[in-house]
Design goal:
By secondary structure, the chain is mainly α. It folds into 2 domains: 14-55; 56-90. It contains 2 helices and no strands. The protein has helices at residues 16-52, 58-89.
Length: 90
């Protein structure tokens, strides 16, 4: 007698909301891990700027400030846009 896909025990019922809930929770954990990594990178950048920023020429400091502000705006907009799209799909 052959057992294919657990047929000997009958079909196993899986609740869709349980699968979705577990998947969402797993993804949320991954996202929080990535946010934590990004926060650590920002702290490293902050430490670097605090220790070496005053030695840069004024025009270089201005350029870096502009670049950091632009990156922050892009990150915020991209995250907000994607999270809005996800929320709308629910």
């Amino acid at each position: 007698m052959s057992r294919k896909n657990g047929a000997a025990h009958g079909p196993r019922r899986i609740e869709p909301e349980d699968i979705i809930g577990r998947s969402v929770e797993r993804r949320r954990g991954k996202i929080q891990g990535r946010i934590g990594k990004l926060e650590r990178q920002v702290r490293k950048l902050e430490d670097c700027v605090a220790s070496q920023g005053t030695s840069l020429p004024p025009e270089e400091r201005k350029r870096l400030k502009t670049e950091i502000a632009r990156l922050a705006a892009r990150l915020h907009e991209a995250a907000e846009r994607r999270l809005d799209q996800i929320a709308e799909s629910l």
